[in-house]
Amino acid sequence: MIELQLNEIYTNLGIIINLILAIIIPIIVLKVINWSITRVISENSITSTSLMTLNKILRYIVVLIIFLAILDVLGIDLHSLIVSLGLVSLAVTLAAKDTLSNVISGIIIILEKRFVIGDMIEIDGYKGQVKKIGFKSVELFYKKKYMVIPNVLFTTKPFINHTRNGYYAIYFDVKILNRYNFDEKITQIEKILDNSPLILKNPHYVLLIKNITTSGIDVTVKVYIKDPVDDTKVTAELIKKIKREIVLEDMY
Predict the structure, then answer these.
(1) Closest-CA residue to 250 (of 221, 218, 207)
(2) Peptide bond just before 203 cis, omega within 30 deg
């Protein structure tokens, strides 16, 4: 009788220990992975938002592993359970297909550092500054417009990172009429740009002849700024200054 009771105690104790291990080991592994990711991020300048996204993904995975391990310790036949829930699993898989694709794409975005918070990007007709790289999507903001782009688009469609090199290019056109001396007006525009604190000195601005008409010459002014959010403000200030000091009629 005592031997049976001891066997039962040992059996129950073994189950309890296995349950504890099934919970503790995945948590310890998660801590180690988080520590490793934090080191990689600190060495590669990946944003804290990216870290939060990766941690969230890992937590979901760990919870799933703990759940399956507990079922196994309790003696539940996982194979039979999976077979019996086959139709449900199929339905859930189909329903979660887009979510899973977005999560995987999010991981690719973070690891490959195709863009980071603050970059100005353009994809599938949408353009904006990256405000957040989330679990399933990327949040963009531009000229009072808020946009949410699914992560999967960034792995299935081409996109442009306008600030990949650390600066942002803006353009505007001026028309120099035939009654003006072209070289003189170009020199005046260059002087204004050289003295402007609103634009970067490196890379240097560029003046390009866009079109020659019977009334004059259209010139495209290309300048570079640090923060893409300032593009409208800088463009407006430069146009106003050129108009005021050089008196050019057509600018756009």
Answers:
(1) 218
(2) yes
The DSSP output letter for 228 is G
Token pair for residue 204?
A: 């240097």
Reduce the DSSP state of residue 139 to 3 states and report it: strand
CATH at 128: 2.30.30.60
Give Dmax (Cα) for the chain. Answer: 115
Q: Are residues 141 and 117 in the same domain?
A: yes
pTM of the predicted model, to two decimals?
Answer: 0.60
221 in Cβ contact with 207 (< 8 Å) = yes
d(CA 46, CA 151): 17
Domain span including residue 128? 112-161
Per-residue model confidence as pLDDT tens digits over 109-144: 877 788 888 899 999 889 999 988 877 889 999 888
Calculate the CA 144 to chain-centre distance. Answer: 19
Say if residues 148 and 220 touch (Cβ distance below 8 Å): no
Q: How far apart are CA 20 and CA 189, in angstroms?
A: 74
Pinpoint the alpha helices (H) of the chain.
2-44, 48-73, 78-84, 86-95, 97-112, 153-156, 182-195, 231-246
